[in-house]
Amino acid sequence: DAMVIQNPRYQVTQFGKPVTLSCSQTLNHNVMYWYQQKSSQAPKLLFHYYDKDFNNEADTPDNFQSRRPNTSFCFLDIRSPGLGDAAMYLCATSRDPGGRETQYFGPGTRLLVL
Amino acid sequence: GQQVMQIPQYQHVQEGEDFTTYCNSSTTLSNIQWYKQRPGGHPVFLIQLVKSGEVKKQKRLTFQFGEAKKNSSLHITATQTTDVGTYFCAGPRYSSASKIIFGSGTRLSIRP
After folding, report:
1. A85 φ, ψ to 5°?
2. What integer best gives the mean pLDDT of chain B?
3. Which residues have a Cβ under 8 Å from the Cβ of B67 and sit 6 or more positions away?
């Protein structure tokens, strides 16, 4: 089945230690998104790629970076995780950009910062 | 800035009771989507509404888009334990139509 896969499902890191979260998709969608979701809150968009074009949200900290080496894969790099970065990180895809496009979410990676 | 608010924030109902969540946008929306997120899960797309006044049904779920396209509602008839989760509405960002903004969400819990 076509799907969005995230690895790992749970990640524990130390304060200040770089961590990379990965996302892959078999939907062949053009757009890949990274969201941060904290407990009892709505998903918050960090950035997205439309093909190779990177679009950063104005309020996304510089601590967060992303890479999309090909259509199928996208990575979220947190250079120096702080305690406030503990959250669920959701990857999503859509066929094309636009508010009418359905977004397909992966299962998420829950990040714990010690 | 653009805001999409949902009420109530939480709803606890007896199984079999009805449930409604309301979504209100500060700006007119070209369309609205609804997602469901089970506890510990990820958002899953439910439906999209595009037309003013549109009503769509999925079994026990009824979705409505307001005439002014600034509000929407989701009504669940005779809730079941499988309906537990958080329901989010989402609409296009006013500043960038390539992105969506999620509502604040309504968490539904059910007493068996």
Report:
1. -90, -5
2. 94
3. B52, B53
| B33 interface with A at CB cutoff 8 Å | yes
The stretches in chain A having pLDDT less than 70 are: 1-2
What totals of helices (H) and strands (E) does chain A contain, helices first? 0, 11
Three-state secondary structure call for residue B94? coil
Average pLDDT over residues B40-47: 96
B98/A99 CB distance under 8 A: yes
Euclidean distance between CA atoms A93 and A105, whole angstroms? 7
Average pLDDT in the B99-110 region? 94
Distance of alpha carbon B109 from the chain centroid: 15
Cβ contacts of B91 on chain A, cutoff 8 Å = 99
pLDDT per residue over A58-72, tens digit each?
A: 999 999 999 999 999
With an 8 Å Cβ cutoff, are A100 and B98 in contact?
Answer: no
Question: Side-chain half-sphere of B34: how many Cα atoms within 13 Å?
Answer: 29
Amino acid present at A110: R
Structure tokens at A8: 């790992």
**How close are the terminal C-alpha atoms of chain A, in Å?**
36
Residues A106 and B33: their CA atoms lie apart, in Å, by 18
Amino acid identity for residue A81 in this structure: P
In this predicted structure, what is the pLDDT of residue B97? Answer: 63
Q: Of the candidates B42, B97, B99, which has its C-beta nearest A105's C-beta?
A: B42
